[in-house]
Amino acid sequence: MNPAPAAPDTGGSANRRNEESTMAHPFDDPEAAYRVLVNGRQQHSMWPHDIAVPAGWTPVFGPDTRDACTGYVEAAWTDMRPPSVRAAR
User: Fold this and answer.
1) Do residues 73 and 57 lie in contact, with contact meaning Cβ atoms separated by under 8 Å?
2) Which of 10, 24, 50, 89 is most exposed, with minimal Cβ within 10 Å?
3) Could you tell me where the Basic and acidic residues compositional bias lies (predicted)?
4) Which phi and psi angles does 82 have, rounded to 5°?
5) Torsion over CA of 68, 64, 79 and 39, rounded to 10 degrees?
6) For residue 45, what are the contacts with CB-CB under 8 A and spacing of at least 6?
7) What is the pTM of this model?
8) Residue 71, class by beta-carbon neighbours within 10 Å (0-12 exposed, 13-18 middle, 19+ buried)?
């Protein structure tokens, strides 16, 4: 007995993949302006300038280019351990 023929591919999943790949994600735009945020645990995060700062985070740098914000984070956040662990030294 032969298996039933497969349903024709209408391209639905391929079309969805194409749409997803062309949609801009605000965190991936190298031309956008960003800010660096810090939370109560002194964790740093880059955040798109045109998106509201989430609760619990404070802007500490920017707005500036993505490269400038990355440089700030690399220079300012050299110890990723929580403050309580750093203070225990």
Assistant:
1) no
2) 89
3) 16-28
4) -60, 150
5) -170
6) 36, 37, 38, 39, 57
7) 0.68
8) middle
